[in-house]
Design goal:
Order of helices and strands: EEEEEEEE
Number of helices: 0
Oligomer: single chain
CATH superfamily of the domain at 17-80: RNA polymerase II/Efflux pump adaptor protein, barrel-sandwich hybrid domain
Number of strands: 8
CATH architecture of the domain at 17-80: Beta Barrel
Strand order of the largest sheet: 1-8-6-3
Shape: globular
Radius of gyration: 14 Å
Largest sheet: 4 strands, antiparallel
């Protein structure tokens, strides 16, 4: 009987933004406390998308512009480093 292969986790450093999009990165090193949006969800400029917790302080990470969350990498409870991508946002086309 063969053992199931472990699922390969996406490496955050390999994530790229589309030409009309941007990576949303963590401003600090800490734990992902809450993910407030889902992939495919429309967000407004300045809307909180993730909350990072470090040393009992919560830091909201906001969308840089109005758009659609194309990929959510942040997972509650996971440690992230400052500058590490949390999500990919793409500007909505009219």
């Amino acid at each position: 009987m063969l053992a199931a292969e472990p699922e390969v986790e996406t490496v955050a450093d390999e994530i790229t933004a589309p030409p009309n999009g941007q990576l949303i990165a963590s401003p600090i090193t800490g734990n992902v406390w809450t993910v407030l949006v889902k992939e495919g969800e429309s967000v407004t400029a300045g809307q909180k998308v993730v909350v990072i917790e470090a040393m009992k302080m919560e830091v909201g990470v906001e969308a840089p512009f109005a758009g659609i969350i194309k990929k959510m990498v942040a997972v509650p409870g996971k440690l992230v480093n400052a500058g590490q991508p949390l999500a990919v946002i793409e500007k909505e086309t009219a």
